[in-house]
Design brief:
With about 50 residues, this protein is an all-alpha fold. About 0% of the residues are buried.
Length: about 50
């Protein structure tokens, strides 16, 4: 998958999710995904040490 295809996929997915959620639900979900990304980055760095 090219970088352009990946960003298009992410954007399309975000729009599809946002259509079916309230603002409060979106805020919670964005926080969950941010924490998930941070945790995955921590695991990746820890593995490389």
């Amino acid at each position: 998958m090219s970088p352009f295809e990946l960003t298009t996929f992410i954007n399309t997915t975000a729009n599809a999710i946002a259509c079916n959620m309230s603002d409060d639900e979106l805020n919670l979900l964005s926080t969950v995904f941010s924490q998930l990304g941070d945790t995955l980055a921590t695991i990746s760095v820890q593995r490389s040490i």
